[in-house]
Amino acid sequence: MSTLLQINASLAGANGQSSRLAQRFVADWQAQHPDGRVITRDLASDPVPHLTAERFQAFLSQPEARTDEQRTHAEYSDALIEEIKNADTIVFAVPMYNFSVPSTLRAYFDHIARAGVTFRYTANGPEGLLKGKKAYVFITRGGFYADAADTQTPYLKQFLGFIGITDVSFVFAEGLGLGEESREKSLNQAHNAIGELLPRAA
Asked: Which end of the chain is more exposed for a tag (fewer CB within 10 A), N or C?
């Protein structure tokens, strides 16, 4: 059974524009995978704690040497990793906040980037271990940044590639804060792009 993991990073949860674009894609995916499973993780309603020294030390400690608190921290991270490991398709809904990705998404990434678990260091450099997955990223922005100060796309490509997810497609909706005409035009273009993401059935 195919599994899709949808990660919403908008403060508005399912009502955010990025979440709505992602959900449109998920609906298309479900139409092609009627027996597939969809798991939704909303980082607004269920935020991942930001990384602390205590949590990081829990990740580094050997299982048998962990305190009860460290064990709890490590098991929480393990559950997030198991969730993404079991997904064939991963969907990210990512608005731009202050020229970057939401801090809740960075916190999520901090918990799934684990040496020896989702990546490892080799003589040829780091190797991502979450291979064979397809990711789709839906990015929404109030202004236009694609040709200038786009800090999100390179960061997301680098991080996902670092853990082994190299097959990544992006859909952008920009200029959403520049008036109704700009907003509607951009959202329509994004929806058209979403319609072309999945191969058509023969």
From this structure: C
Is 142 known as a binding-site position? Answer: yes
Decide: pTM greater than 0.70.
yes
Contact yes or no for 102/136 (Cβ under 8 A): no
Q: Is 98 annotated as a binding residue?
A: yes
pLDDT at 148: 74
141 is in an annotated binding site: yes
Each residue of 97-133: pLDDT tens digit? Answer: 999 999 999 999 999 999 999 999 999 999 999 999 9
Ligand-binding annotation for 10, yes or no, is yes
99 annotated as belonging to a binding site for a ligand:
yes
The count of residues in the chain is 202
d(CA 65, CA 60): 10
179 annotated ligand-binding residue: no
Question: Does 172 belong to an annotated binding site?
Answer: no
Q: Token pair of 45, please? A: 């309603």
Buried b (16+ CB within 10 A) or exposed e, 126-157: eebbbeebbbbbbbbbbeebeeeebebbeebb
